């Protein structure tokens, strides 16, 4: 850094009162800073050197001098761990209301850094407790995010308003939830107005903080999620969806529908299947037992069954999640994209989720192999990835009746390919050019009954082996 004086360097690197006093006695300018206007007092306070600071102040150092980013020596002292230094500067006239370029007062910074022993020296009459930073945050918000219950309690005692929100409509409650600070969340739930939560969460411009439950899920804080569900916020607030942005559906297959919102159940299944592993079943059970919906009312909402089917791999977990959703009444026949194929089955297909396709067909989904394969080809989802190759082989094994589909497949999987998997698929395709009469009969029966097949099989006196064949339990 350019422009450093001997006095500034002494305050920066030495804790020698004798050296500092000698330089002052020799005429060193106590308020001369470097090119960024860091003064000797800034440096002494940044390093928590009380004895040096006292000498500088006695020599006329300006306790409210601001450097290039509007930080005062008091800001620097708060960044240190010396509460006595903070108390001393305030006693010498340090202005606790001065904001740095980010809009942070000393109180704000102390709250952010969890310096409770410094906050108690700051009179809120001189520094309004709800002074906002440039992004609209307050000291209470950053304290809630940091998770220091003592600081949060002190700020509330001094009159901090928990109902305020930053410019992005995030409240202190949102930040505590997303950071997983259970005790702080518990306190804020008691003092925050439900009407304020509702207003900020449902504001048209509210994005990241729209759903409190999704914040707890995103942070993987099950205890916080359970606390929210046991609160008196009410189902309307608890069930609020989160907006689907690019990051939520990034690297997910495109279904031809622009989903604009994601319920807590769908958010859990879409984002946490790979992270939570088996624990996702615990989260899902908690949400379902609390009455979170498993179906959607409009096509802009991502259905939970579709969300879970967009996840390739984790076959066992996906199967368990599907079983839980179906047990709570999830609509396996929900259709908005392709009138011949329900959305969950279509999502499993284009994700290359072979086990998911088979599971949905076995429990009664009305889609047929021809329709699935035609959609894959027509909409450009077919590729040579292992997942998609397995999907094609499954559909062929289930029975494809249209000759034109075989011809289209040969273009994707030529016998002359040097890729071993593609070549094997081409050979498999060649062996299945004609669908067997047995499979043709199964397809005809499933086309006739559609989604009523499973109820019909339960009522009709059909041999068990035939029931298994018609429902794909045996291929």
From TrEMBL:
It comes from the Eukaryota. Keywords: ANK repeat, Repeat. The keyword Lyase does not apply. Residues 436-475 form the SOCS box domain. ANK repeats lie at residues 2-35, 36-68, 69-101, 135-167. GO terms for biological process: intracellular signal transduction. PANTHER family: ANKYRIN REPEAT DOMAIN-CONTAINING PROTEIN 39-RELATED (PTHR24171), BRCA1-ASSOCIATED RING DOMAIN PROTEIN 1 (PTHR24171:SF8). This is SOCS box domain-containing protein. It comes from Cryptotermes secundus. The lineage of its organism: Eukaryota, Metazoa, Ecdysozoa, Arthropoda, Hexapoda.
């Amino acid at each position: 850094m350019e422009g450093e004086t001997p006095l500034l360097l002494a305050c920066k690197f030495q804790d020698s009162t004798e050296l500092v006093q000698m330089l002052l006695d020799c005429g060193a300018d106590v308020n001369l800073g470097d090119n960024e206007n860091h003064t000797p007092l800034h440096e002494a306070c940044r390093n928590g050197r009380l004895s040096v600071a006292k000498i500088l102040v006695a020599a006329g150092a300006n306790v409210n001098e601001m450097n290039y980013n509007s930080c005062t020596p008091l800001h620097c002292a708060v960044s240190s761990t010396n509460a006595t230094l903070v108390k001393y500067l305030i006693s010498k006239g340090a202005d606790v209301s001065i904001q740095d370029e980010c809009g942070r007062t000393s109180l704000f910074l102390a709250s952010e850094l969890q310096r409770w022993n410094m906050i108690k020296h700051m009179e809120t009459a001189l520094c309004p407790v709800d002074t906002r930073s440039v992004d609209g945050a307050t000291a209470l918000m950053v304290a809630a995010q940091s998770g220091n219950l003592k600081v949060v309690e002190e700020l509330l005692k001094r009159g901090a308003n928990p109902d305020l929100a930053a410019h992005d409509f995030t409240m202190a409650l949102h930040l505590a939830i997303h950071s997983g600070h259970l005790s702080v969340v518990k306190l804020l739930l008691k003092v925050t107005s439900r009407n304020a939560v509702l207003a900020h969460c449902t504001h048209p411009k509210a994005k990241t903080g729209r759903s409190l439950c999704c914040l707890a899920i995103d942070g993987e804080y099950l205890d916080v999620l359970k606390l929210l569900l046991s609160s008196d916020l009410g189902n309307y607030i608890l069930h609020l969806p989160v907006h689907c942005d690019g990051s939520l559906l990034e690297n997910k297959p495109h279904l031809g529908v622009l989903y604009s919102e994601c319920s807590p159940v769908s958010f859990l299944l879409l984002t946490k299947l790979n992270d939570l592993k088996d624990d996702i079943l615990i989260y899902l059970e908690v949400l379902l037992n609390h009455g979170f919906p498993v179906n959607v009312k409009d096509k802009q909402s991502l259905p939970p069954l579709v969300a879970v089917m967009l996840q390739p791999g984790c076959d066992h977990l996906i199967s368990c999640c599907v079983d839980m959703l179906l047990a709570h009444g999830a609509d396996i026949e929900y259709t908005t994209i392709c009138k011949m194929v329900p959305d969950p089955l279509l999502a499993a297909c284009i994700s290359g989720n072979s086990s998911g396709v088979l599971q949905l067909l076995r429990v009664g989904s009305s889609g047929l192999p021809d329709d699935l394969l035609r959609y894959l080809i027509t909409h450009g989802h077919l590729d040579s990835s292992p997942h998609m190759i397995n999907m094609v082989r499954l559909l062929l094994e289930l029975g494809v009746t249209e000759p034109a589909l075989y011809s289209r497949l040969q273009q994707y999987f030529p016998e002359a390919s040097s890729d071993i998997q593609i070549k094997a698929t081409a050979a498999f395709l060649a062996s299945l050019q004609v669908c067997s009469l047995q499979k043709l009969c199964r397809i005809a029966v499933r086309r006739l009954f559609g989604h009523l097949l499973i109820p019909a099989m339960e009522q009709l006196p059909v041999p068990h082996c035939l029931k298994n064949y018609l429902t794909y339990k045996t291929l």
